[in-house]
Write a structure and sequence with these properties.
It is a single chain. Helices cover 19% and strands 25% of the residues. It is an alpha/beta fold. It has three domains: 60 residues, no CATH class; 146 residues, no CATH class; 183 residues, Nucleotidyltransferase, domain 5 (2-Layer Sandwich), CATH 3.30.420. It has an eight-stranded mixed β-sheet with strand order 20-21-19-18-13-14-15-22. Strands 3, 4, 8, 9, 10, 11 and 12 form a seven-stranded mixed β-sheet that branches. α3 runs antiparallel to α4. The two termini are 46 Å apart. 21% of the residues are buried.
Length: 409
């Protein structure tokens, strides 16, 4: 008996192995194209082709609707199973749903009292407390065909006749069934999620076990951004403790945005600098050097410098940025390249330097846009009120033509 525990990002791990069972853990986090060799599930399932009893098991927390690999795998099956339990009062079977304020079923609680939570039966409005729910006699029922099973081994038709096991099957379950948490905690998690621009997505993915549907293709409204305008009393507002910059490389210019950061990831746009000129000319790059080393006056009178710079290598010769990274310090100026693959971290710092002696970092552009888009869409708060994740802009209309152009796709 052999067991291999391998990373899903390397194509070599999908070769030269023959097994009976292949398991994909957190499939939604896999690359959709493994090192340009194809789908991870198709590559992995090739390893069980010679087995007498082959089995492909795919498990994951869902992510974004339409691009989620576990959603794709689930949709390929003809059988989508949910776990039904009987109401302890009326005996009617149902699968648990979170619901909302308007639904006549789901988790309900008194305002400001998560401890009062109960489940409202969808059939007769019975009040069910978590301690009353008996899952031991529950059954998995296919919402498409009515096929059911208790143990995943023996299957029955909707007419209760025993049938052969299906070729493919999907099981869905969420946190309300878990013996390791409480409905009270789910309510607390829900209330906490409402406070964070990205919290709702996390709750839908990790607690409800559902995909999150983005507002695909939407652009930021001009008024949404104007509502975040703040009149700074100094170049750097009082709450800012750290300065960073991002440099976008174009064929005829560099654009640099300087951001000030306050506790709780509150962000203030401090400066926007455009350096015109050919990116491969030293005179242009010397002006970029000046911008990187520019000093800014803090509200308390002290001077601040930019602590960290991410410099885009796209669209120009990357070696230009590599040389500047070495000039300013390889940890102060980081060359970056974008990766439009869902699930990539905002930034991945390599463990070793590349052949030019610098750290070329990879930016998950889709992930970064999701985070920024959610924070920009969040309701504005007063300028004098410290707010985690808030984004503040100076009173400069030119900035918004650039920001509005960013589209979530």
């Amino acid at each position: 008996v052999g067991f291999w525990c391998l990373g899903g990002a390397a194509a070599k791990n999908y070769r030269e192995k023959s097994v009976d069972v292949v398991c994909y853990d957190e499939l939604s986090s896999f690359e959709p194209d493994v090192e340009k060799e194809g789908s991870p599930t198709l590559l992995g399932d090739k390893r069980i082709e010679g087995s007498v009893w082959p089995k492909s098991i795919r498990g994951s927390t869902p992510k974004i609707k339409g691009s989620c690999q576990i959603e794709k795998a689930a949709n390929e099956s003809a059988h989508f199973m949910r776990f039904y339990v009987s109401c302890p009062h009326c005996g009617e079977a149902q699968y648990l749903k979170f619901g909302d304020e308007s639904t006549p079923f789901g988790l309900k609680w008194e305002k400001d009292s998560p401890e009062s939570v109960f489940y409202l039966c969808e059939h007769h409005g019975c009040v069910i407390h978590q301690s009353e729910l008996d899952q031991s006699n529950g059954r998995w029922i296919c919402e498409n065909t009515g096929m059911w099973t208790r143990d995943g081994l023996t299957f029955f038709s909707a007419a209760d006749n025993e049938i052969p096991p299906p070729r493919s099957i999907t099981f869905h379950i969420w946190t309300a069934y878990s013996p390791f948490t409480t409905w009270v905690q789910i309510v607390y998690d829900w209330l906490d999620a409402l406070k964070d621009p990205n919290g709702l997505k996390t709750f839908v993915n990790t607690t409800l076990g559902e995909t999150w549907e983005e507002a695909v293709g939407e652009k930021l409204d001009h008024q949404v951004l104007m509502d975040k305008v703040v009149r700074y009393t100094a170049a750097v507002p009082s709450r800012v403790v750290y300065l960073t910059a991002g440099i976008d490389s174009q064929r005829n210019r560099f654009e640099m945005y300087v951001w000030g950061w306050a506790p709780g990831e509150e962000a203030f746009l401090v400066d926007k600098i455009i350096i015109m000129g050919r990116p491969d000319e030293e005179e242009t790059l010397l002006r970029v050097d000046v911008a990187i080393n520019k000093k800014y006056r803090h509200a308390d009178g002290t001077e601040m410098t930019i602590s960290r710079v991410c410099w885009d290598t796209g669209g120009i010769d990357g070696e230009i940025v590599y040389q500047r990274s070495k000039k300013h310090g390889v940890f102060r100026v980081l060359p970056v390249k974008g990766a439009s693959v869902y699930g990539k971290p905002v930034i991945t710092m390599p463990k070793t330097r590349n052949q030019w002696g610098v750290y070329l970092c990879e930016v998950g552009t889709d992930t970064a846009k999701e985070i920024l888009y959610a924070r920009m869409k969040a309701d504005p708060t007063p300028a004098d009120e410290a707010t985690s994740y808030a984004i503040r802009f100076p009173d400069d209309p030119e900035i918004f033509s650039q920001t509005e152009a960013q589209q979530l796709v």
